[in-house]
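For reproducibility, we list the full input for the (2Z)-2-iminopentanedioic acid complex.
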Amino acid sequence: MSYVDEVIARVVKENPNEPEFHQAVKEVLNSLRPVVDANEEKFRRDAVLERIVNPERQLKFRVSWVDDNGQVQVNTGYRVQFNSAIGPYKGGLRLHPSVNLGIIKFLGFEQIFKNSLTGLPIGGGKGGSDFDPKGKSDREVMAFCQSFMTELCKYIGADTDVPAGDIGTGAREIGYMFGQYKRIRGLYEGVLTGKGLSYGGSLARKEATGYGLLYIVQEMLKCHNDTLEGKTVIVSGAGNVATYAIEKAYQLGGKPVTCSDSTGWVYDPDGIDLAALKEIKEVKRARLTEYRNYRPNAEYHEGRGVWSVKADIALPCATQNELNLDDAKTLVANGCKVVAEGANMPTTQEATDYLQENGIIFLPGKAANAGGVATSALEMSQNSERLSWSFDEVDKKLQGIMANIYHNIDNAAKKYGFEGNYVVGANIAGFEKVVDAMQAQGIV
Ligand code: NDP
Ligand code: 2IT
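The corresponding predicted structure, in tokenized form, follows.
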């Protein structure tokens, strides 16, 4: 059995009931075959792959808090500190009822390679809880965040592990968590990113993931002698990533016509009303059912379905495995040319294979959504020097980082004979830097 196959088999056996983690590991290790084959003896002796698939540390803890009825609620908190070869652990905190250890491990594993691709000194980590902020009062969210941070604060710090937002964790949650960290540890430091602008946050961090997604698509199109001008774009999700992807798609001349949440989806043939979307989601924290109150000509459908709309570019920006093989077939049949992942692992493996086999340009999440964490690293830099940069300065750096990522993954794919396969390119380019740092630091 090849070294890659051995390690995949071991991961599946040793981490039962973690299908998303298996999926992420299989995708990365399968992509690494050309690099591993060329170094098999050395990598095997040094157990490089066994070390990269095993988190350095994983924390699981009880989070008790009191709801508005005086009832004590108990959730589970997680932080997986996956790999610190190239910098302090860095990655978001997901608050969603579906969260379990396997989900956090898949996200933490992806984060290692994504963070490496940014070119900035950040290792990989991820955390979160099965707490559902939806429908909770501000006081309940604060009670949860304070309890969560009371335990988490023992393991994180500006130079050790720097969490941030993800699904369900936005500016409100980061604020409550920062307050509790400062209160317990007595440190005013950049321990979290995505902070509010009045207490150490970076301009453009809120927009960064969505903007970065469009910047990498723009760079890729430029290299294919094309632009976003006049392109129809379908987007899933209606949260942080989707909203700012829609905003930047407009700015670059595209026409985004869909968005979705966990109850339904909107098709607006005139283009999504961005101000309405922001008001519904960022201000009212309401459902997309309200969208038709703003735009009577738009369609609202229950369930899922954005991928059935004819478009040039598809941007999945909601959650993992939201674009399946049937969706991929529909996209191809409808003449879609580009799929770029704003979310983490939103496309199933079968769907990814089908898209690539049928000539769709596919930009994987660890490259395409790296703008968020890259800008988090810029927030860390600003906190360290106790300065803040202008929106334009951060945005220019973000553009440069996304263009670089595109060229790095393109070159890595070409170097190993997989031209145009950005999955292979991203995994190899991300891995090379991490493995180099791991080898240099000895057996740890
Ligand atoms: P938000 O919580 O702001 O928004 C998530 C959106 O996706 C919501 O519209 C939500 O609908 C929908 N959604 C979430 N889970 C599901 C589900 N199980 N089924 C259907 N719809 C769902 O999160 P973000 O925008 O921050 O994150 C979106 C994706 O992007 C995630 O995969 C995240 O890991 C990834 N990402 C985020 C980054 C960031 O900086 N925020 C950076 C890089 C990647 P509803 O509100 O109804 O649940
Ligand atoms: O998936 C991700 O890259 C994020 N949720 C952002 C992480 C971060 O540290 O900004």
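Residues 206-368 form a domain with the Rossmann fold fold (CATH 3.40.50.720). The mean pLDDT is 98. Both points were considered when choosing residues for closer inspection.
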